[in-house]
Specification:
The protein has 167 residues and is of the alpha+beta class. Helices cover 20% and strands 31% of the residues. The longest helix has 25 residues, at 5-29.
Length: 167
Amino acid sequence: MDTMAPIRRGLSRTWEGVREGWEQLREQAAGAITRFVPSRTTGDVETSEERLAYRTPGWGVLTADVQETDDQVHVRLEVPGMSSQDFELEVVDQTLRVSGEKRVENEESRGRFYVIESAYGHFERLVPLPAEVNQQGAKARYRNGVLRVTLPKSEGSKRRRIEVEAT
């Protein structure tokens, strides 16, 4: 009788659950995982804010929700710690490109950081759009860490009801 068999089966099931969880997370969050590059890539790092930016993970999660209505596409992107002037938006090939820079704002000059999980620097997030849009009428608003973009659909992408005539 193999006394280790139940332990091996239990470990195998546990490992399989962990693997499935990571796979699901990777699939769902792949687009949201965003690279942040420190502003200064050459020369000496001079300020405490620059030193802190280099110590951050360099990767962050910028989650997006995309909703389509008959006439518009709405994008909601969570990007905390920025101001409305820090963003650049454009539509390229049915993709919303959101780029900008998240800067370090170190309010306390004393003490030291023990945990740094926020990412800082330049970033670019590509959000696929479900329909062709007209960026001329696009509107964007940033409030409470959430960027909301409303994009009107192009005429060819709008849904049209086709009436069926009785014969």
